[in-house]
Amino acid sequence: MNDPMMPIESPSSGEFETVEPLQVLLYYNYTPITDAETFTVEHKEFCDSLGLRGRILIGDEGINGTVSGTESACQAYMDWFASDSRFMDTEFKIDPTDEHLFPKLSVKYREEIVALHLGEDDLHPRDLTGRHLSPLEWREALKAGSPGEDYVLIDVRNDYESDLGHFRGALKPPLNNFRDFPEWVRETLADKKDKKILTYCTGGIRCEKFSGFLRQEGFEDVSQLHGGIINYGKDDETKGELFDGLCYVFDKRISVEINRTDDKRVVSRCAVTGEPSVRYVNCALFSCNGRMILSEEGEAQFGRFCSDECKARAAAGERSSVEVPGATGEPEFDDR
Ligand SMILES: [Zn+2]
After folding, report:
1. Which domains does the chain show, CATH number per domain?
2. Rounded to the nearest whole angstrom, what is the distance from the C-alpha of residue 271 to the centroid of ligand 1?
3. 18: CA distance to ligand 1 center in Å?
4. Half-sphere exposure of 194 (CA within 13 A, CB side)
5. Mind listing the pLDDT tens digit for each residue in 30-81?
């Protein structure tokens, strides 16, 4: 009889390859960076030396990034943040991952690390922003009344993100650009300035600026979910309660689970069959790469295309990725 404690001999015994686990880090920090363009070049070299992959935006106003790398590389990266007075209060959302979530490393200088384009009205969240609510405070605020009546709950993400999942009762602006939010607010919420406002986004960075903008516009009672949906989903007390569907993320995973309670609902539907589905894919036509929710069944019926036009263009010989099920084009980098 085999002793269960005995290691099983294998032909390659002694040649085990140790693969170090990988992690993904999501972070931002609104902190003044002097000579941010030079810093961008240096930071890219540093990230390269650690073998990190991902996308990082750097501006005079701060840093915003998602990277994947080995656990030791991620730790070295976070240690570096902790050692620099400009960045030492950066909060990282850390998740394990089986593979790198980006094809390469991109570190870019931008005027804004989230593009709200407020122009002359631009503000720094260190000077003006909404109240930060912890996951527990957030859940309490949601349960303290009814959305639409007692408070205005705003999903500060693009429509293709909120379509896949959102907090129950949230207003989901029909926008696919963050910079369109100010106009939407002025058109839609002008009579809500005395209401309690609750805002949330993926990791918190968009709310930092957006809630500051709301206060600048005269909204009196503005709160934001600290750390965003991702942080809320990690919280062991709230367990993602009241978030329905999945959270869209800007990397290879496309979406992550948030709600770990028994009370959760699928809120998205297959574009072809109309049946509930959380399967988010990109249009197979490379020149389109548009996002859509498409079930396996829908794809079998129609193909992985977002429109008749894309399908026809692929059929006419334009480059597409139809031969690789589940393959997506490179996810577009956006703000979190
Ligand atoms: Zn398309």
Report:
1. 22-109 (3.30.70.100), 122-247 (3.40.250.10), 269-336 (no CATH)
2. 12
3. 41
4. 1
5. 999 999 999 999 999 999 999 999 999 999 999 999 999 999 999 999 999 9
One of 201, 207, 283, 288 is an active-site residue; which one? 201
Query: Which tokens is 75 given?
Result: 């730790």
CA of 322 to the centre of ligand 1 (A): 12
Instruction: Indicate the DSSP class of residue 332.
Output: P
Indicate if 288 belongs to the active site. Answer: no
At 331, list the tokens: 């996810």
Placement of tokens 């099983």 in the chain: 8
Question: How far is the C-alpha of 4 from the C-alpha of 22, rounded, in Å?
Answer: 30
Q: 185-243: per-residue pLDDT in tens?
A: 999 999 999 999 999 999 999 999 999 999 999 999 999 999 999 999 999 999 999 99
In this model, does residue 245 exceed pLDDT 60? yes
Verdict on whether the full-model pTM lies above 0.70: yes
Ligand 1 center to 273 CA (angstroms): 17
Q: Are 148 and 277 in contact (CB under 8 A)?
A: no
What is the spatial distance between Cα 216 and Cα 274, in angstroms, rounded to a whole number?
41
